[in-house]
Amino acid sequence: MECKKIQEWLMTDHRDGELNPAEGSELRQHIEGCAVCREFEESVRMTVAAPFRGLAELQPDPVVWQKIRGMIAAEEDRSQGWLRKVERFLQPVLRPLPVFRLAFVVAMVLMVVVLARWPFGRVEPVYAYMEEQAVFLGELQTGNPESSGSDATEYELPSAEMMS
User: Fold this and answer.
1) Which pLDDT score, from 0 to 100, does residue 129 have?
2) Which residues of 61-83 are buried (b: 16+ CB within 10 A; e: fewer)?
3) Residues 94 and 101: beta-carbon distance below 8 Å
4) What does pLDDT average to over the chain?
5) How far is CA 61 from the centre of its chain?
6) Three-class secondary structure of residue 143 per DSSP
7) Chain segment 24-79, per-residue pLDDT in tens
8) Integer angstrom CA distances of residue 22 from 17, 26, 27, 38, 114
9) Residue 78 in contact with residue 71, Cβ under 8 Å?
């Protein structure tokens, strides 16, 4: 294997412990047979790794973690659908007590029933009027106003002479 690839592994994947077993074995074999790469490995160990040994792990301020969590939550909100957003919005309302849950469900059912019935209650008289007019026009067309006992008897039907 080329020294360039081995040196790249020494600087990155080997230091991070991300080499798979086959690559690790290949790296060790190369270093055993190559003086230049052995020297490079020692140099990396002394200049890159040694200065950080013995240092305590740094912990960021809790405010930083809060900002990170907020940014993650905002990203999740953007990537999720509208239903998840509604669920998050309603979560405080639905969580506290079963009584509030029941009241919310009852209110939603009532709202659905009202909205489902609302336009149809006003349209029924229109349909009834239209049906009455269709029957009336049908009677006028057949020339038999007495068949259903409607108001068609009040109107004069055109005679055959008038129609020609």
Assistant:
1) 79
2) eeeeeeeeeeeeeeeeeeeeeee
3) yes
4) 77
5) 32
6) coil
7) 889 899 989 999 999 988 888 888 777 777 777 778 888 998 999 998 888 877 76
8) 13, 6, 9, 19, 69
9) no
Give the domain extent around 68. 62-142
Q: What is the mean pLDDT of residues 108-128?
A: 71
| Most distant CA atoms of the chain, gap in Å | 124
Q: Is 12 helix (H, G, I), strand (E, B) or coil?
A: coil
Same domain, 92 and 121: yes
Measure the CA–CA gap between 107 and 152, rounded to whole angstroms: 49
Give the residue ranges of DSSP H helices in 34-143: 35-44, 62-79, 82-94, 98-142
The DSSP code for 96 is: S
Tell me if the pTM is above 0.90.
Answer: no
107 shares a domain with 80 = yes
Q: How far apart are CA 83 and CA 75, in angstroms?
A: 16
Summarize pLDDT for 142-164 with one digit per residue, the tens. Answer: 766 555 555 545 555 555 555 55
66 and 126 share one domain: yes
CA–CA separation, 135 vs 158, rounded Å?
A: 18
